């Protein structure tokens, strides 16, 4: 499994990438493998303030629906439009084109609380 060292991770299997004053958020390679084929991504929180650990959407796989938890506090700025027609992109490219939301960073200190790639790898036993 792949866990890029440049990303931050949560125990709920989300990743976060900081680009300037915004963060891109998606699910990890481990999470997409556990879920299986993703058939739908539902995020209805655009322009809403989300607290750290709150649900910002769901991802639906063939056998289950899983909540998506925000790694940080902020405002959801954008949902990845590609996922409307190609939700399987989360499976094929979880850290690239399969990002799920872009959000503002409300409290930069929360990023320091997230796991490193090594810590996350240890968590999932990879």
TrEMBL record:
<dbReference type="InterPro" id="IPR011053">
    <property type="entry name" value="Single_hybrid_motif"/>
</dbReference>
<dbReference type="Pfam" id="PF01597">
    <property type="entry name" value="GCV_H"/>
</dbReference>
<comment type="function">
    <text>The glycine cleavage system catalyzes the degradation of glycine. The H protein shuttles the methylamine group of glycine from the P protein to the T protein.</text>
</comment>
<dbReference type="GO" id="GO:0005960">
    <property type="term" value="C:glycine cleavage complex"/>
</dbReference>
<comment type="subunit">
    <text>The glycine cleavage system is composed of four proteins: P, T, L and H.</text>
</comment>
<dbReference type="GO" id="GO:0009249">
    <property type="term" value="P:protein lipoylation"/>
</dbReference>
<dbReference type="InterPro" id="IPR033753">
    <property type="entry name" value="GCV_H/Fam206"/>
</dbReference>
<protein>
    <recommendedName>
        <fullName>Glycine cleavage system H protein</fullName>
    </recommendedName>
</protein>
<dbReference type="InterPro" id="IPR017453">
    <property type="entry name" value="GCV_H_sub"/>
</dbReference>
<comment type="similarity">
    <text>Belongs to the GcvH family.</text>
</comment>
<dbReference type="InterPro" id="IPR002930">
    <property type="entry name" value="GCV_H"/>
</dbReference>
<dbReference type="InterPro" id="IPR000089">
    <property type="entry name" value="Biotin_lipoyl"/>
</dbReference>
<keyword id="KW-0450">Lipoyl</keyword>
<dbReference type="GO" id="GO:0005829">
    <property type="term" value="C:cytosol"/>
</dbReference>
<dbReference type="InterPro" id="IPR003016">
    <property type="entry name" value="2-oxoA_DH_lipoyl-BS"/>
</dbReference>
<feature type="domain" description="Lipoyl-binding">
    <location>
        <begin position="22"/>
        <end position="104"/>
    </location>
</feature>
<dbReference type="GO" id="GO:0019464">
    <property type="term" value="P:glycine decarboxylation via glycine cleavage system"/>
</dbReference>
<feature type="modified residue" description="N6-lipoyllysine">
    <location>
        <position position="63"/>
    </location>
</feature>
């Amino acid at each position: 499994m792949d866990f890029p060292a440049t990303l931050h991770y949560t125990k709920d299997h989300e990743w976060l990438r900081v680009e300037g004053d915004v963060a891109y958020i998606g699910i990890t390679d481990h999470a997409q493998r556990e879920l299986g084929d993703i058939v739908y991504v539902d995020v209805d929180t655009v322009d809403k303030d989300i607290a750290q650990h709150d649900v910002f959407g769901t991802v639906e796989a063939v056998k289950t629906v899983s909540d998506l938890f925000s790694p940080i506090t902020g405002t959801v700025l954008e949902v990845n439009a590609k996922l409307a027609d190609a939700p399987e992109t989360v499976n094929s490219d979880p850290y690239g084109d399969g990002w799920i939301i872009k959000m503002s960073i409300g409290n930069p200190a929360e990023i320091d609380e997230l796991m490193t790639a090594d810590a996350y790898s240890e968590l999932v036993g990879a």
